[in-house]
């Protein structure tokens, strides 16, 4: 059956590319994917998918649907996920399928993800009689939102109820085209954000003794934050504390400002490290502000959990990829400090999240993600469709 799935994926290759280009020309940003949602829902309806649900998070964005296998099959359910949103960015590529929306472009590959999963739905419909269970398709909005992620809205809307395993693919412009990268355990980092306001007392630059300078506190805090990773997190763990921006209430050479503001992000993989970093940051803010006579208001927000791949499910995906494309094309991925709201699914059911490389200098598909010139190597998109379908079939077969 794996061979047949690959053949079907190649059969639909032209359609996958055309669909991807349609989405690329008509991008919609997070929680605005109304027309994208309509197209997906109509396509799934034509394929004969069941239990089609449209709209999540109080919007008309996002679709879930099911492909139900042969009568009398087991009740096992496998979920396949694609994100559908674009970025608020102008497309700067000179290509026939350039975005027609000046305020949005698919600069992260979600158009490819959606096209691959729609093709996988077509393949799974073709082999429906051989499916020993059901496949739930998750076309998820707002992966790029961060603060209000679409995955959480789908979970809250019941999209993961009864799911025994979940699988997702992300195209990667930093991974050689046609390679499949997997990783067991921690894969992508948790994403947290923080904001800090330091209040002092403004004054004249010539008489600092009459003021309480918040910039002194800000400078000490910036340095001390970096010491958390260097001196409080074990070298066996991984963490990043970043400063996103620093500004003061005034910007004049001879004025000591009244207030300094800072923000940034934190990336971790283990909850224990995440807890420790948050506590340490609060401790440093309190201590430095007390020592410099300032008042600090610190806010720490947890946006996305870490993506943790379950071992058995991920090794199944690895095995499927090797059977489809050969062992030489399948490689273990290093940790990625980026974040993904797929993590909301991986907290509920055994998961496998993987990368499909699309980087080709010749095809100009090696630009960074979120770049206005980002593109993908369309010749490998059939591989993603095949992986989705083959993983679902293999999982329902009970393969290990």
Largest sheet: 8 strands, mixed
Helical segment tally?
10
Shape estimate: elongated
What is the total domain count?
A: 2
The assembly state of the depicted protein chains is single chain
Strand order of the largest sheet: 1-2-4-3-5-16-6-15
The name of the CATH topology of the largest domain is Aminopeptidase
- The CATH architecture term of the largest domain is 3-Layer(aba) Sandwich
Textual characterization of the structure:
- Helix content is 34%, strand content 26%.
- The protein is of the alpha/beta class and 400 residues long.
- The protein folds into 2 domains: 2-189 and 306-397, Aminopeptidase (3-Layer(aba) Sandwich); 190-304, Alpha-Beta Plaits (2-Layer Sandwich), CATH 3.30.70.360.
- The chain has an 8-stranded mixed beta sheet, with helices on both faces.
Compact overview of the structure:
The protein is an alpha/beta fold and 400 residues long. Helix content is 34%, strand content 26%. Helix 4 links the parallel strand 3 and strand 4.
């Amino acid at each position: 059956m794996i061979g047949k799935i690959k053949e079907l994926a190649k059969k639909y290759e032209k359609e996958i590319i055309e669909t991807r280009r349609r989405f690329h020309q008509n991008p919609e940003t997070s929680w605005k994917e109304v027309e994208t949602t309509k197209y997906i829902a109509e396509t799934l309806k034509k394929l004969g998918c069941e239990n089609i649900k449209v709209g999540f998070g109080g919007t008309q964005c996002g679709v879930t649907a099911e492909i139900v296998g042969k009568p009398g099959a087991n009740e096992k359910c496998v979920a396949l996920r694609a994100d559908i949103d674009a970025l608020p960015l102008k497309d700067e590529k000179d290509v026939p399928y350039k975005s027609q929306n000046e305020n949005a472009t698919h600069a992260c590959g979600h158009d490819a993800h959606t096209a691959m999963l729609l093709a996988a739905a077509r393949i799974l419909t073709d082999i429906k009689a051989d499916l020993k269970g059901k496949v739930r398709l998750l076309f998820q909005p707002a992966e790029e939102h961060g603060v209000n992620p679409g995955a959480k809205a789908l979970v809250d809307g019941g999209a993961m109820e009864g799911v025994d395993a979940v699988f997702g693919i992300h195209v990667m412009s930093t991974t050689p085209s046609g390679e499949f990268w997997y990783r067991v355990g921690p894969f992508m980092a948790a994403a947290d954000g923080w904001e800090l306001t330091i209040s002092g007392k403004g004054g004249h630059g010539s008489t600092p003794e009459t003021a309480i300078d918040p910039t002194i506190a800000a400078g000490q805090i910036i340095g001390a934050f970096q010491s958390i990773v260097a001196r409080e997190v074990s070298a066996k763990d991984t963490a990043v504390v970043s400063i996103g921006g620093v500004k003061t209430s005034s910007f004049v050479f001879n004025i000591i400002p009244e207030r300094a503001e800072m923000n940034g992000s934190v990336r971790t993989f283990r909850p224990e490290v995440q807890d420790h970093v948050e506590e340490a940051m609060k401790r440093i803010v309190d201590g430095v502000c007390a020592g410099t006579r300032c008042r600090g208001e610190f806010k720490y927000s947890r946006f996305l959990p870490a993506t943790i791949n379950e071992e058995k499910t991920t090794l199944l995906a690895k095995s499927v990829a090797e059977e489809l494309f050969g062992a030489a094309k399948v490689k273990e991925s290093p940790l990625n400090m980026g974040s993904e709201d797929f993590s909301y699914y991986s907290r509920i059911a055994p998961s496998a999240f993987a990368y499909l490389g699309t980087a080709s200098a010749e095809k100009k598909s090696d630009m960074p993600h979120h770049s206005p010139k980002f593109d993908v190597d369309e010749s490998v998109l059939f591989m993603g469709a095949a992986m989705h379908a083959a993983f679902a079939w293999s999982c329902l077969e009970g393969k290990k």
